[in-house]
Each structure stands twice: as structure tokens, then as C-alpha cells.
Design goal:
Blueprint (H helix, E strand, L loop, with lengths): L18 H11 L3 H12 L1 H4 L11 H10 L10 E5 L7 H7 L4 E6 L2 H14 L3 E5 L5 H7 L2 E7 L4 H8 L3 E11 L3 H14 L6 E5 L8 E7 L16
Parallel strand pairs: 1-2, 1-4, 2-3, 4-5
Antiparallel strand pairs: 5-7, 6-7
Helix pairs in contact: 2-5, 4-5, 8-9
């Protein structure tokens, strides 16, 4: 456990109490900033104790994890239906739900211990976020949550596999927002063909939070193309 986890009033090891940082945090979260601080406390305490984040991550949880996810919020359409795949410690789903209270967010996570933690945290925060135990490729998840405007994922899988899991959850024209690291450009170059075959458009990269966090968040965006009928092959002997 960190010596000095972030606190609800805004202090913490990676969030010095400066006017510039305070203005930035308010710009991202508005009147939900105390809830975002509370979420950071959960990550640094029970999140570490229960293995959702590593103890070395706790001292930098605010900028590296909470803000890194929340600055993606401008990419969401108004009133978005958002499915966060492989949510783990609620990243990026919970920061996005706090930054964008107009969004309807569901966290999809297969591991029971993580699902239990997510439900406890959401109950404590008092926010309207759903939690679904399962995987994006499960039939029950697809039936319940298909037609989403946005699907998010952070550090879940390479882009080609991610597209196979996530694109079926999106409405035509909906977008996959994959929060990536330094490998983003290489993945786009390598996996564009696979993404196109799976029904996605050409991926592109957005940098979110420039001037707020350093480095900005790197997001690979894939739009699900309008559904087209696939011609069936006639078997030999058919008219």
C-alpha cells in the first residue's frame, strides 16, 4: 500500500496542490471531481490489496490511470451507450462515467473477484454504472449490450483480436476506442487489414489530453462500417 494515497480533497503523491492542477482536474471532472478522487483512493487501497493494480502503480494512479482515461471523454458522443470491455479495475469505464455523467456505461469483466470489487466501488461512489460478468465475445453479453455507440478497452489485447471481440457490440457507425501505449502506430499498420475484414473502417490515432497530461493518451479509433449483406455462395446443384 502506498505511503500517501491520493485523497478526496485532491492531495496525493502525483497530484500536487497547485492552482494549475486543480483547474485541470475541475475541467476534466467538473462537480464530480470528489468522486474521481474517491475512486483513486479505492485504486490505491483495496485495489492494491486485492491485486487489481500493482503496488508500484499506486503513487502515480491519478495521472497515469485516472486522468489518462478521463481525458478520452471528448471522443464520446452526447448520451453515449458505452461498453467497457475487459474493464479490470474500472479503467477506462469509471473515469469516463465520472467525466461524462450523460453516458450510460457498462463494465464487462470476466473475473469474479474483479466484478465484486467493481460493484463495491460503484456502490460507494453512488453512480449509475452497470457491471456485467462475462467476455465481450459471449453470446449473452452480445445480446444484452449490442448496439452500443462506443466500446472502450485499455491494455486488453492486440488490435486485431480486440476488433473481433468489440465490433459486434457496436451499432453501425459506432466506434471502438482502444487506449494504447507506444505500440499504437505499429498495431495500426500491422492490423488494418484484419480490422477491415472484421467490418471496421481504417483505424486512426487520436491524442487526448494534450496540455493536461504528459504524455497525452493514445487512442486507436475504429468505426464500425454500415452493415452490408454478405452474398451467400450457392452450393453445386442448386438453382
Amino acid at each position: 500500500m502506498p505511503d500517501a494515497p491520493p485523497t478526496a480533497d485532491g492531495s496525493g503523491p502525483d497530484t500536487p496542490d497547485t492552482g494549475q492542477d486543480a483547474a485541470r482536474d475541475v475541467a476534466v471532472f467538473g462537480d464530480r471531481l470528489p468522486l474521481a478522487r474517491r475512486f483513486a483512493e479505492h485504486l490505491c487501497t483495496s485495489g492494491v490489496e486485492r491485486g487489481l493494480i500493482g503496488p508500484r502503480e499506486a503513487p502515480r494512479v491519478w495521472e497515469r490511470h485516472v486522468l489518462n482515461c478521463a481525458v478520452v471523454a471528448p471522443l464520446l458522443p452526447d448520451g453515449a451507450r458505452l461498453v467497457d470491455v475487459g474493464s479490470g479495475a474500472g479503467l477506462p469505464g469509471i473515469p469516463l462515467a465520472l467525466a461524462r455523467p450523460d453516458a450510460h456505461v457498462v463494465l464487462v469483466e470476466p473475473l469474479a473477484r474483479r466484478v465484486d470489487w467493481l460493484r463495491e466501488v460503484i456502490a460507494d461512489l453512488g453512480v449509475a454504472v452497470d457491471v456485467e460478468r462475462g467476455r465481450a465475445e459471449d453470446d449473452v453479453v452480445r445480446r444484452r449490450w449490442e448496439g452500443a455507440d462506443v466500446v472502450t478497452a485499455r491494455a486488453v489485447a492486440p488490435l486485431d483480436r480486440l476488433a473481433g471481440w468489440c465490433l459486434p457490440l457496436l451499432r453501425p457507425g459506432g466506434r471502438l476506442l482502444a487506449v494504447k501505449g507506444a505500440s499504437a502506430a505499429d498495431e495500426v499498420e500491422r492490423d488494418t487489414g484484419a480490422v477491415r475484414r472484421l467490418g471496421g473502417g481504417v483505424p486512426w490515432i487520436e491524442r487526448c489530453g494534450a496540455g493536461m497530461i504528459d504524455p497525452p493518451s493514445t487512442v486507436v479509433v475504429v468505426e464500425r462500417e454500415t452493415r452490408r449483406p454478405v452474398p451467400s455462395r450457392r452450393r453445386r446443384g442448386q438453382a
